[in-house]
Amino acid sequence: MFLVKQLQSQLPENINRLVFESKREGFRFLVRLVDDFLVGTNTFSASGEILYGVFDEKGNLVGVGGLNKDPYSTDKTLGRLRRFYVDPNYRRHGIGRLLLHTIIEFAKDHYDQLVLYTDTEQGDKFYTSMGFLRSQEFGRSSHHLNLTK
């Protein structure tokens, strides 16, 4: 059983374990998440923005993902999926789908399109399985999802 919770005023203490795992896989975006959150440059707290964590039954943080206004566009109808990561030991258990579905449902109330960037085959397969289209139609993105359908 997994629980998705909004992360608001502070990051969970055990986020460092996720940061460590992500760095082992060659990803640095969770380091950026923590750094930006601590200095206040991106706390996912503006209107239409949110950050979620997924916790297991013991309260361990096993996934994280957020939504921002797209910082690379002046189009206010674009939301950007950011800092999306699931602990490798918990993949293939539906956590990514649960988290992404939660973010998409929130995004529908704020945006017309949801964009993201991934450069991995695994990410591409995951996002396209969730309905995203491979596209560079929107700047600095690899995939998009129309939220108005």
TrEMBL record:
InterPro entries given for it? Acyl_CoA_acyltransferase, GNAT_dom, NAT_camello-type
Keyword match Transferase = yes
Q: Where is the N-acetyltransferase domain?
A: 2-149
Q: Which UniProt keywords apply?
A: Transferase
Instruction: State the protein's name.
Output: GNAT family N-acetyltransferase
Q: Which Pfam families match?
A: Acetyltransf_1
Organism in which the protein naturally occurs: Bacillus carboniphilus
Which top-level group of life is the source organism from?
Answer: Bacteria
Tell me yes or no: is Ribonucleoprotein among this UniProt entry's keywords.
no
